[in-house]
Design a protein that fits this description.
It contains five helices and no strands. By secondary structure, it is mainly α. Helix 1 packs antiparallel against helix 2 and helix 1 packs antiparallel against helix 5.
């Protein structure tokens, strides 16, 4: 491709069947989160199928899963705030441990009305958040070899089992989806009773 042949990648092309649709109505935190989750799953599946790709796909897959967690928590915070009839102000930082603490605090206000939100779900999500936060507190570890201060990002980590990563994230996704569904049901209930 020559410079004269170059066309912006941020537009459609004549081979319309490859034009991905963006900004079409579901530009929510949840939709973005799902996109990152699905992309990470494809990398995991591909690496499991072709183990020569393990060391190549581990960084983007882990980053995509971490970003999925962050966007899921932000989206759920917004949903819970709507359910509580509060301003759905979404935190703009990347610290998933703080996002999870914020979510648990506001979600507790719905807890008496939500039988799905139980200690097993909380404990599992706590562990996943703790694990990702320990090794990637600010979303640098799988994007860069060093942080802003020049310190190695995955210091002390020698292996990530990509199969286990994928399995953990499937369970995490199920639990987060259950929480989202419970909040959405509560929002629908509020709508139905006219509040």
């Amino acid at each position: 491709m020559t410079l004269q042949e170059y066309k912006s990648v941020f537009t459609s092309a004549a081979d319309w069947q490859f034009n991905a649709c963006v900004n079409w109505g579901y530009n929510t935190y949840s939709f973005y989160a799902w996109s990152y989750y699905e992309s990470a799953n494809q990398l995991v599946k591909s690496a499991i199928k072709d183990r020569t790709k393990l060391d190549v796909f581990v960084y983007p897959a882990t980053f995509l899963f971490r970003h999925y967690i962050e966007l899921s928590l932000k989206g759920l915070i917004g949903r819970v705030l709507i359910a509580l009839e509060k301003d759905p102000e979404i935190p703009m930082h990347h610290r998933i441990n703080q996002l999870w603490l914020d979510l648990k605090k506001i979600y507790a206000e719905l807890k008496p009305r939500d039988p799905i939100f139980n200690e097993i779900v909380i404990d599992f999500i706590d562990e996943v958040i703790k694990d990702f936060s320990e090794y990637d507190p600010d979303s640098f570890a799988n994007r860069y070899p060093v942080d802003k201060k020049g310190k190695e990002t995955l210091d002390g980590v020698t292996h990530i089992n990509i199969r286990q990563l994928g399995e953990v994230m499937i369970k995490f996704n199920v639990d987060i989806d259950m929480m989202c569904e419970a909040v959405d049901r509560y929002i629908e209930f509020l709508h139905d009773i006219g509040t």
